[in-house]
Amino acid sequence: MQRISFSQRPDALDKIRTAGLTGDARSDERPGTNPLLENILSEGGEDFFQYLTWIGLAKEQDLMVLSSVQHYHYDHNDLLGIKALVNLKKLNQIRHPDSFLHTLFRIMPSNAYFAGYFKSNPKGARRSKFSRALRFLCGLVKHLNPGHETCISRKIAKGLLEGNGFKVLDMTEINGITYFWAQNCRVPGE
């Protein structure tokens, strides 16, 4: 596993310490730091870290972070004890977000929290008379360049989450990125 260095960013370590997760069982060789929160800062950025702190997930002890750059295989047993899952890959960059969310719904514990983010469409694009043309162009770009981010709106993201069994607790836009917090509404034993 690749280690993340924050030697050039002492302010990042201060943010981790003030989040209240210092010296826990998940800390590595540097006392007073949490590798999960370091990962959130390095991949998700300071705005995402601040959002997770604001909603209270940064202090969650049973937190799992899905990296946007490293790919791991998780099974049902890996997710049994978690209370919160943070996805560091933008929802726009997930090739099949509907399947991804449905799989999370099935394997996450009921009432577990899920947090992530996406780059939303420009505010005026949804209401513009050119929105049909914009959707067509976004679809064309997606087809021609599958690595490109898909166009997504808050309404579409909320529909994806709720359509796959999540209750959206919050959506907040910060600097052009929309962060969301949802809860798995699966009935225990389902």
| pLDDT averaged over residues | 75
Compute the gyration radius: what is it? 17 Å
Straight-line N-to-C gap: 34 Å
Count of DSSP E strands?
A: 5
What is the overall silhouette? globular
Please report the number of helical segments: 6
Strand content: 15-25%
Structural class of the helix and strand makeup?
A: alpha/beta
Low-confidence runs of at least 5 consecutive residues: 1-10, 15-32, 124-128
* Helix and strand element order: HHEHEHEHHEE
Give the helix level as a range of percent. Answer: 25-40%
Largest sheet: 5 strands, mixed
State the strand order across the main sheet: 1-2-3-5-4
Briefly characterize the structure.
The protein is of the alpha/beta class and 190 residues long.
Description:
- The chain is an alpha/beta fold and 190 residues long.
- The chain is built from six helices and five strands; from the N terminus they run ααβαβαβααββ.
- A five-stranded mixed β-sheet has the order 1-2-3-5-4, with helices on both faces.
- Strand 2 (84-87), helix 4 (97-107) and strand 3 (113-119) form a beta-alpha-beta unit.
- The longest helix is centred in the first third of the chain and has 21 residues, at 35-55.
- Residues 1-10, 15-32 and 124-128 have low confidence and may be disordered.
